[in-house]
Amino acid sequence: MTNTTRPDGASRRAASRAETRSRILAAARELIPGPGGSLPVTTIARHAGVAIQTVYDQFGSKGGLILAVIGDVQRSHGLFEAFGAVFHSRDGEEAMRRMIQATVSFWDRAWPYVEFLVRSRRIDPVVAREMDYVDRLRNAHFWAIAKRLEEEGRLRAGLSADRAADQAFAFTTPTVYEELAVRRDASAESAVDTVTRAVLAVILEPEVAAASIAPPDWAALEREAAERAKGRGSDPARLSPEWWGAGAGALAPPSEIVKAPGGTRRT
Questions:
Q1: Which residues contact 36 (CB under 8 A, 6 or more apart)?
Q2: pLDDT of residue 99
């Protein structure tokens, strides 16, 4: 009798390939928090116990490996889950608050990796290129939220969704977090609160309530944002399908978000 539970050759090869990929990603993550701003593929391959060509077979290029590491860190530190909260918000301001919280809190939780990427992009053109790629995706999320705020009539007079997204993006860069929380020893909650107040003060028209319009169609806004990102050279699918969870319907409804002293937190 044939053993139907025994994996065939193709299944074994796929499992072996997945195990090798996981081992290379784990090796890169183990090495990244170390000193310096450069991490050659040869060093990662040696640490993973694989040939250099195996790294390229798995990820296509050093840039592909960098993006895979970024996506793996984002997933394991809860960023994609936090996006689910952002794009279940009842209005643009709530979404902006949640996106700032998700972003700045991620810098805090993943700081050893983020710090490496900030250093490395200044000296390594491959890392710089891939970080620019991710930055365009991050900006696109802010654009979707700013577009909703524009629809609600909440943006400052004369301020476009494009400009509002750029301003929110700039205030939420890891270098701003570094200045507030690393160099000046503020708590993550305090950094979230400071950045949130700064962004809202810059982009929102004071004392103007949201217009009474239909609830946000976040999936449509995210799809439009994704197309804009593609037009600017950053296909979100190359990083992770989870980056656009709202548009794909891939994420479950978020847990409740409540106010906490100095910022917000998930429950």
A1: 119
A2: 97
